[in-house]
Every structure is written in C-alpha cells, then in structure tokens.
Design brief:
The complex is a heterodimer of chains A (274) and B (590). Chain A is an alpha/beta fold and 274 residues long. Chain A is 45% helix and 14% strand. Chain A has an eight-stranded parallel barrel, surrounded by seven helices. In chain B, helix 7 crosses helix 8 and helix 7 runs antiparallel to helix 20. At the A-B interface, helix 9, helix 10 and helix 11 of A face helix 7, helix 19 and helix 20 of B.
Chain lengths: 274, 590
C-alpha cells in the first residue's frame, strides 16, 4: 500500500474556481506545504503571488492555460503559459482545442500544443483532453498528438465538463502514452477510494481540491484493504452513466448509448434500461 | 497522568455515601476514557440480574482524557442499563457539561441507589453537595435550569431531566446546556428512577497536557482537516444536519409513514434549506467546535434549538407531516420535557400505522400536524394515549398484536435511514450493542456521503469488515470523547496522535482500533450474559421481505443473514453471536 507521503507527492492541490481570490490561494499554498503536496494548481493570474509564497519550499506551482475551454487562439495560450513560467510556474496544464480534435483537424491541434510546449520551456506541459466530450478513439488520438509535441503529461479533465476522471479513460490513456509519459487524473476526485482506483488504472498524478480528505482516508485502508476495494457496480464508474443529452454533444451521447445497448451489464445495471 | 483529574466519585443516593473509585493505569490503557471506561466501570459494578430501574443499576457520567482540550471536547457520556432495550447503553451529548465537570475536578461520577426525595447534585471544585430538589420536581428542563442557575451559579453547566424522566418514559432523555440531549435509550428515566433531577458542574481546574506546544500546533492542522472536508467544512456548517433531508430522500431511503416508503414527496417542506429560510436565527456550536452544525431557531411563539435532521424526519416524513412549524414546536416540547425525538416520532408513526389498519383505539392519522404537539406532551406526562406511547414502538406494536409494525432493533426505535438503501447500515443496525442506532457505525458516511471513503451501498461484499471496523473506531472516539462528526475529516492515526499529545501515551492507530474492539466486545459480553443472542440481531420483517416500491432504492431488501455470518466470524463470535473464550482472552476480557 502507498504511504501518506508518497500519495501526497502525487497530488496537485487545486483551486480553480472563478470566485477564489488571494486569501484562498494563500491557504491553498499553506496547505500544500503542510500536507506535502506536489504542487498547487491555480489560474494564471495568481502565479506570481503563489510563487512568492512557495519559494524555498518543495511545492511546485502548476498553472492552467487556455482554461477551461481550450478554445483560445494558440498565441493567447502560448503567451499565457510563457508569462506564467516567467512568474514562477514549474508546470503548465493547457487545455487542448477539444472542438477541433473532435472534427479531426489534427494539424491545428498539434501546432496548438507544440506552441505552448515551446513557450513553456523549461516547465513541463500537461495536455488536458476533456475526455467527457470525446470518444475513445479521439482520446487515443489526442494522447498521440500530445506525446508527439513533447508534452510530458496527458490529463483527463478540467473539472468543468460533464464529468471528470474515470478509470476506463485513465487506463486507455496510460496504454496509449506508455510508461514514460505522465497521466494526470483530475475532476470529481473526492476521496481516497476514487483516487486509488485511478492510480490503479494508471494515473501517476492526481488533480483535486479534496487532497486533504484524500490523505486522511488513506489511514483507514490498512484495516480492511480488500473490503474497501470490493468491485463497484460497473455502471457507477462507466462514462456512460455520467452523460446526458443536455450535458454532452449529441454524437457522444449516442456513442455511449450504443455502447450501453451492447453491454453485458445492460439488464442488471445499465442506466438506459433501468 | 496528563489528561485526567484522577478522580471518579461513586455516590450512593440511598444513604449519601461517597467513595472515590481508583482508575487504574490498566483500565486507562485498555479502555481509554469516556464510553470505554464507563462501560468497564458499569460491568464491574453491575450484573445481568440488576434491572434498569433497580436502585443498584449504576448510572455513570464520564468525561474523557481529551475533554476540555481540543476541538469539540465539551462532550460527556452517560452509561447505564437501558429501560427501553435492557441492553447496556451509552449515550453522549455535546455542549459544555463534560468540560465543566472536568473543570470541577472529576473525570466521572457514578450514581447508585435511590434518593428518598428528589435531589440534585452540585459539583464545584472538588466538592459535592446533594441538595433537595422537591421544589423543582415536575418542572421542565428550562425551568429547572433557570431555578438551579439562580440557586447555585449562573455560569454552571446543568444536566437535568424533565417530566419525561421523572415519569419514567422509556425513552426519556437528559438535557444539558442549550437544549443538548443525551437522547437515546431512556437514560433520563434511569435518572428519574433514582429521584435525581439534575447535576450542576462548575470549576476552575485545568486539564494538564503532556505536550502543550505540540498540541497547539496540531490543533491548527486538525482545524484545516475539518475545514477542508466537504461534509464538516461545507455541508454541516451551511445547513446543519438537516442538509441530509434532500440527500437521503434522493437516495430513496428517507423513511416515510413508518418505513412504508423511502421517498417523502413533501420533503422540501422540512429540508435544511427551509429551516434556514423560515425559522433559523443563527448557527450554534458546542465547545470549541469549528463545524457549528447547531441551529438556533424561532417560530411564532417560541425560541429554541433545532430541529436536527433526525427530528425533522421523526416528526416529519415518518408521520407524513411537512409542516415545519409543527415539527419545530414538537421538537421544542421534547427539549423541554426531556424526550428522545427519534423514539417519540418513530413510536407515534407505529401508532399511526396501527390506527390506519384499525387496530389502535385512538384515531391518529398520517399527516395530522395539529395533534403532534398534544401527542408529544401526553408522552412526556404519560397521560391518556401517551401512557402507551411512552413505552416505545416495540411494546406498543406487541400489545396490539402486530409486533412486525415496530421499526426497532432490540427495542430501540430506528432512526432516519431506511436500511434497504444501504446494506452496511442494515448490518450496523442489527449488530448495534444498544439497539437500532445509526451512530454505532455511521455507515451513512461511506455508503451515502462518500466520506471518509466511498462504498457501494447496495453491495454486501466486505461490509461485515467495514461495519466492525467503524464500530470499533466509533467506540474509541466515544472514549476520547470527541464529536463523531470529526470522523468524516480525521483519520484514526490522527485521533491517536491527539490522545498522545494530551496524555503523553504512545498510541498508534492500531492500538486505537484495538481499544475500540475491546470496548465493543465487553458491551457484547454483558448483553450476551443478559440473554441476548443471534435472534436479537435482527431487523423488522419489512426490511427483509418487502421491497421498496419507489425511489432510487426500489426493489431492494436487506440481505442480513449472509453479512451476519461473516460479521460473527470476523468478530470471533460463535454462531449465536457470543464472543468465544479465545476472543475474550485475546482482548484481556476473560
């Protein structure tokens, strides 16, 4: 079983709400130091402020770019990333142009990421795919493009989409990028069991605002490891359970509905047949 | 030893003799304090032959080593034999009384015997004075508090019974400070049976702390854990415990009309949101509590505390009532008369179902908010229909030939969660040492709220292990004594660390779990010796045979037998639920 210290070092302690000001960012940084998290993950306007607080500590500053939609012009994303690195960011979490990836404009997507990777040097770049709007094939393609540009991580979600990180997607991303590229799971991760499932699926970084609760949850596991990790009802962690016609593009809704109709669990659990 | 006043006093109310009981290091090491030491003292002093209302039945008030030191540490624990369930029973309460008792120089008080006339006991800085309470016998808890505060000390903390305890209502509560209740199991009636109206505590002593500087730093860390946890940092402060109304209703396990349904269509009328919008005056908190889940409220005529989640359910959905004002006023009456709201509402619901089936002489209808306050008052006074209701659901349903309509375990009325929606909770209800209780192992945390970790609520797999673990951890926390809500946010290793910083001991999380296991087994041993067995670890038939028809727990029943076998095996109990000699020896309980 993982130790508390090891787990903390896998967590990007996150605060990306529009309503968060300096007070919250200061607390976030203090918590990150006290609990031993890998980094704080914040919006770019707070970069300098957080870097000043965290200098002379082991905590990195991770800054998002083109967040949360990924639909900004490439130059804007790159400039945002460049400025963040100048202000002290050690990692950049950029959002892919999800719409153009879905349409198959891979050339644009590749250039978009490459420019941010170049602008961010020497900081590492993580590419957020926003999996909830993608088919599995599109996730694979997004991962392949990201790796080809020199990005160091692929990341599941912004936390602002229809759903966040799910084991199936993490597993797929890990299988696609191999062992040398990072996979960050983020979005909707609330406790240790969520976290552990994602780590088991292949994630080596976790983005969460619930990092403190996640660490405390770990202390219970040693007493009943098997019992905690009993298999879920498969539909609970299936992406299909988390989509609705209003929350994702129609094509994605149909994609999952079709999958459900062929699923071996359809008569037992499947949401479309309940 | 740091963390302790090193004084537990036994008072015989029959002859006013007082005797100091030595608390040995071994007792502290094996049972910690609070519930654990209380249970140990109780089993040493009592025997299965002593009945709840016998003068010899000990009534024990305990603080813990952490009382008065860190967040939520104003609590105290009351331990005795329950007149409602006949089991060993402990119940705890927040507020200030625990801290005041310790400041007065006492870790605990044990009452045996019965006073000739009503008395109250005044405890101030090591001195204990037994005073006549004839003039306050018959008064409600608020009046009692006001009179005694004037007589003794306005700054003192007072725990007392109301008319329900005096009249030996089988689910009478003790009330302390601002309407805080030691609610479950009828321990207020035990107090009444001893002619003991109230305890008054005040003092100036401070608890010694082994590592004060380290503790100070650790307190800020603990506060951050609490603030960052979604339940203790957001939900409970925002809407109080009634935040659960929406959640539990959406999960299809909000018991409606005596657990006939799991969805209450009018839940919005009694929700946490509605309380905030309509009757809330301000949030309230126990001693040093950063959560502040309490709700000071006001209706047209009265001010008071609550209602809590369990109460809005008991006087709301359970009875088909969505009138928040009626629910709140019934809650105020319970606070004044000293009545456990869960048992009161559950029992009235049972009477309503009997009435619906034409089996009950009084026509009490679902949704009849107009009669609610009247019924609660009659229970407290044991007048009219209240006389039968005051015996609890089990005795009531049995009398009218339908024992299966009592929603109870071992005689303790079930609280506000239908067990068909959460298998672990069902097992926790069945195996609770004090009867149908959600707090022995708060499985709503993992099965519904996903805290501290999430579990599949419909699965039975692994639940036996988790329930026994939660029962043991809860027994440990009840022995520290801190608020159980902290378990959402603080892991067992850190609970052990707080104890270490206060007492200078060297406990690990593993030691803490073992102490909890020992306490749970000692309680079980007493119950087994009193005649309880596997047949008593059972749920009402409704949960085992009747599927819920609507809501997100529809088509579910409890699969108890399977879990129970696994649970006994893991516990080291035989097939009848009796701890084996080997298990007892391993826990130093032989």
């Amino acid at each position: 079983m993982i130790t508390r210290k090891e787990l903390a070092k896998m967590i990007d302690h996150t605060e990306l709400k529009a309503s968060s000001g300096k007070k919250k960012i200061k607390k976030l940084c203090e918590d990150a130091v006290n609990f031993g998290f890998y980094s704080v993950c914040i919006n770019s306007c707070h970069t300098k402020f957080a870097s000043d607080i965290l200098k002379n500590t082991n905590v990195e500053v991770c800054v998002v770019a083109g967040f949360p939609l990924g639909a900004n012009k490439t130059e804007v994303k790159a400039a945002e990333a460049k400025k963040a690195v100048e202000d002290g960011a050690g990692e950049i979490d950029m959002v892919i142009n999800n719409g153009l990836l879905r349409e198959g404009d891979y050339e644009y997507v590749e250039r978009d990421i490459r420019k941010v990777v170049e602008a961010s040097y020497p900081a590492h770049v993580k590419v957020i795919l926003e999996n909830c709007y993608l088919t599995n094939e599109q996730i694979v393609k997004g991962c392949e493009i990201s790796v080809s540009t020199g990005a160091k991580f692929v990341k599941t979600s912004t936390g602002f989409g229809a759903f966040g990180a799910l084991p199936e997607h993490v597993k797929l991303m890990r299988e696609t990028v191999g062992a040398n590229i990072g996979v960050k799971a983020a979005g909707g991760i609330k406790n240790f069991k969520d976290t552990w499932r994602l780590i088991k699926a292949g994630a080596n970084r976790i983005g969460a605002s619930a990092g403190v609760s996640i660490l405390e949850g770990l202390s219970l596991y040693k007493y009943a490891e098997d019992a905690w990790l009993e298999p879920e009802i498969p539909c609970h962690i299936c992406p299909a359970r988390h989509v609705s016609i209003t929350s994702v593009p129609k094509s994605i809704f149909k994609y999952y509905k079709k999958r459900c109709s062929n699923c071996k669990y359809k008569n037992k659990y499947n949401k479309f047949y309940e | 030893m740091a963390g302790w006043m090193n004084k537990i006093l036994k008072i015989n109310l029959s002859n006013n003799e007082q005797e100091e009981i030595e608390l040995t290091d071994s007792t502290r090491e094996n049972f910690l304090g609070g519930r654990g030491v209380g249970v140990k003292l109780f089993t040493d002093l009592s025997s299965p032959n002593i009945k709840p209302f016998d003068a010899e039945n000990p009534l024990i008030f305990m603080t813990g080593p952490l009382t008065g030191t860190v967040l939520t540490s104003g609590r105290f624990q009351v331990i005795s034999r329950s007149p409602l369930t006949n089991t060993i029973c402990d119940s705890s309460s927040g507020g200030l009384f625990g801290m005041r008792l310790k400041e007065a120089g006492f870790d605990g008080l044990i009452f045996v015997g019965k006073a000739k006339n009503p008395v109250y006991v005044n405890i101030t800085d090591d001195s204990v004075e037994i005073r006549d309470a004839t003039n306050i016998w018959g008064k409600n808890t608020h009046e009692t508090r006001d009179i005694i505060a004037q007589e003794v000390n306005p700054k003192a903390s007072i725990t007392c019974i109301g008319q329900a305890g005096e009249n030996k209502v089988l689910f009478a509560a003790l009330m302390n400070d601002k309407d805080r209740a030691t609610g479950r199991g009828g321990l207020g009636a035990v107090m009444g049976s001893k002619n003991l109206k109230a305890l008054v505590a005040y003092g100036t002593k401070k608890t010694s702390i082994a590592y004060p500087e380290e503790l100070k730093n650790f307190k800020s860390f603990l506060n951050r854990l609490v603030k960052k946890n979604p339940v203790t940092g957001k939900l409970l402060p925002a809407l109080g415990t009634s935040v659960l109304v929406d959640t539990i209703n959406k999960h299809g396990m909000f018991p409606t009309k005596n657990f006939q349904k799991g969805v209450f269509n009018d839940a919005e009328g009694i929700s946490g949101q509605k309380i905030s919008e309509n009757i809330l005056k301000k949030q309230s908190a126990c001693y040093k509590c950063p959560i502040a889940c309490g709700r000071s409220t006001e209706t047209d005529n009265k001010k008071g505390e609550g209602p809590e989640y369990e109460t809005v359910w008991a006087f709301g959905a359970q009875l088909g009532i969505s009138d928040l004002k009626a629910v709140t006023e019934a809650n105020y009456i319970c606070n004044e008369m000293g009545i456990d709201t869960i048992s009161a509402g559950n029992t009235i619901g049972c009477a309503m179902e009997l009435s619906e089936k034409g089996l009950f002489p009084d026509n009490i209808r679902w949704g009849d908010a107009d009669r609610l306050v009247e019924l609660v008052k009659k229970i407290g006074l044991r007048k009219g229909v209240g006389k039968e209701l005051s015996l609890g659901a089990k005795r009531l349903a049995k009398k009218y030939g339908k024992p299966q309509l009592a929603m109870e375990v071992k005689g303790l009325e079930l609280p506000a969660y239908d067990p068909r929606g959460a298998q672990g909770l069902a097992l926790a209800y069945a195996t609770s040492n004090r009867g149908g209780c959600h707090m022995r192992a708060y499985m709503i945390g993992p099965e519904i709220l996903g805290q501290p970790v999430n579990l599949n609520r419909f699965s039975t797999a692994g639940k036996a292990r988790i329930v026994s673990l939660f029962q043991d951890i809860s027994a440990f926390v009840d022995s520290t004594i801190l608020c159980r809500f902290l378990q959402f946010a603080i892991g067992i290793d850190n609970f052990a660390k707080i104890v270490n910083l206060v007492t200078g001991s060297n406990l690990t999380g593993d030691d803490a779990v073992k102490i909890g296991t020992r306490i749970y087994n000692l309680e079980r041993k007493f119950n087994v010796e009193s005649g309880f067995k596997r047949d008593d670890d059972i749920l009402p038939e409704r949960f085992l045979n009747d599927k819920l028809k609507t809501g997100s727990s529809r088509n579910r029943v409890v699969e108890l037998d399977k879990m129970l076998n696994e649970y006994y095996e893991l516990r080291g109990w035989d097939n009848e639920g009796k701890p084996t000699a080997e298990t007892l020896a391993k826990l130093n309980l032989s």
